[in-house]
Design a protein that fits this description.
This protein is an alpha+beta fold. It has one domain. The protein is built from three helices and two strands; from the N terminus they run ββααα. A two-stranded antiparallel ribbon has the order 1-2.
Length: 105
């Protein structure tokens, strides 16, 4: 298992991932960091957990919109991928753990 150190909102996080997935994890972290920077540009800086939650909600909104577009193109409802649900759940729990660590070091 590989270890990757990510920088999000000025903080470093070391996470484990499958060998070969390091670049993918870095790209995802960059997306989160980009969202946080957009939020800060509009709303100003805020607490770390609030920034992570807002970024997660923005990204989830994008997923919902893409699902709607896919449904419109295919003519049938988009089906949830059970693996994606589990992955998102794990990411959400990890984000909550990180936020809790930052609030209560």
């Amino acid at each position: 298992m590989a270890q990757v150190t990510l920088r999000i909102n000025g903080y470093s996080y070391t996470l484990g991932c499958q060998d070969g997935e390091e670049d993918h994890l870095q790209a995802m972290a960059q997306q989160v960091d980009d969202r946080i920077e957009k939020i800060k540009a509009v709303a100003g800086p805020s607490g770390e957990s609030r920034m992570l939650i807002m970024a997660a909600l923005m990204m989830t909104d994008d997923i919902f919109e893409l699902d709607k577009k896919l449904s419109a193109v295919t003519g049938r409802p988009a089906r949830a991928d059970p693996k994606l649900g589990r992955k998102l759940g794990k990411l959400a729990r990890r984000a909550e753990d990180i936020a809790a660590e930052l609030e209560h070091p």
